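The instructor's notes for this session suggest beginning with a concrete chain rather than abstract definitions. Hand out the sequence below and ask the class to guess, before any prediction is shown, which regions might be ordered.
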Amino acid sequence: MGKFIFRLILFAFIALAVSVWFKTFRFSSRQLQVEPISELSLNDSLANRFARALKYPTISSGNWVDTSAFRRMDTLLQKQFPLAHKQLDFERVNEFSRIYRWPGTDALLDPVLLIAHLDVVPADSVAWTEGPFSGTVKDGYIWGRGALDDKLSAWALLESVEKLLQEGFQPERSIYLAFGHDEETSGAMGAGSIAARFKEEGRQFAFVLDEGLVILENALDGLDKPVAMIGIAEKGICNYNLIVQLEEGGHAMMPPPETAVGILSAAIDKLQKNPFPPEIDGAVSHFFDYVGPEMSLFQKTVIANRWLTESLLISNLEKDPAANALLRTTIAPTMLRGGVRSNVLPTKATAKVNVRILPGQTIESVRDHFQAVMDDPRVKVQLDTSISYNNPSGISEVDVFGFQLIQRTCLEIYPEVVVAPSLVIGYTDSRQYQDLSDQIYRFCPVQIDRSDLTRIHGIDERLAVDDYLNLIRFYHQLIRESGK
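After discussion, reveal the predicted structure:
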């Protein structure tokens, strides 16, 4: 009997080893075989042209935009890109947003929509190496608010269009550019109004490309190459207000067993100790399918056999806040309010919780999770409707024209990268265009290190001059090849 059990265990082990080897062996590369193209000759002076755009504090915050800055930047745009404003159909939307239409030669082909936003978040200039609105080119970098988010996309797109017009190029497929002016708040007046305009026209696009993910160096242990991450979906977003309202307050010298603040604190503690379960699915699963075959043998084996190793993979990824955000709906208590004086028991305490929702879940399922975890009827869960909220986007396909064109173009400009679909954990203007195309991608092909991610909305936002020029080259090639 003992020998039989030993042989059974040995057989099971061998079968498991064979299965793991077989899956690893079949886990083949999904990278396209692409020949790099000859580098488009561009003058470094283009960096100075872009830097001038960063001098304008086109800030959007709450319901406010700096109208003077937008008007001055409008003059700069028309001065720097005369052919685009003369030869393309140009339209302003709500004064500060913009649409450019470049008709193609084949009206039967659905057009392409390339989008960006012109507004930026506020900046405290005290800690900056170069002023946030100095528009400085120094030490090989372009410094200023908007260098990474997202004036770079708008300027690089217009530079590529201007150059193509100079070359006498005519697209086969119509090209649309759409630049919003309030993405950093709601996007309603900018991208929302532009999308509504397109819907009225009955417009449908072959694909939409917006900002989103980047080419990231040192992205994963076991992968030496930078990863060009193309967002095929983005998480939803909402804020929930947690409200505790008691009938009586009183003096703090005679406290009851529980106060409004204590009840609310206990509820928040339960939420943080019981996060949403992690999962590797959808866009994140696609990401590992693309990067896994390019990694070292051990990591490749782990990723190829997720049916066996998923819990190990998740436990490792959860240690990194950025990676953890890819795996689950995240909960972040961000604001607390309660009480008027230290010796007065408050009758009301409130908290605001920011939630980023994984595809497959909804705003409603988040509320249900909150109520089940807190399990306290005294804590009311109320959706904050004073700011924008959205369910997660759909997941765009990868074996289609749009993704493959972006992938091929990226490899033509950056031959040493690994291209992979992924999930955007923030939100972009692309959510406004979901009814206009089944293929929506979120990718800004500039190469940065992980340490540079904190510069987005942070201190010392900057972009390498070489990366800006490569961004122009990317859009130039993408538009040239978009008719195929």
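Then share the key points. The chain has 14 helices and 19 strands. The mean pLDDT is 94.
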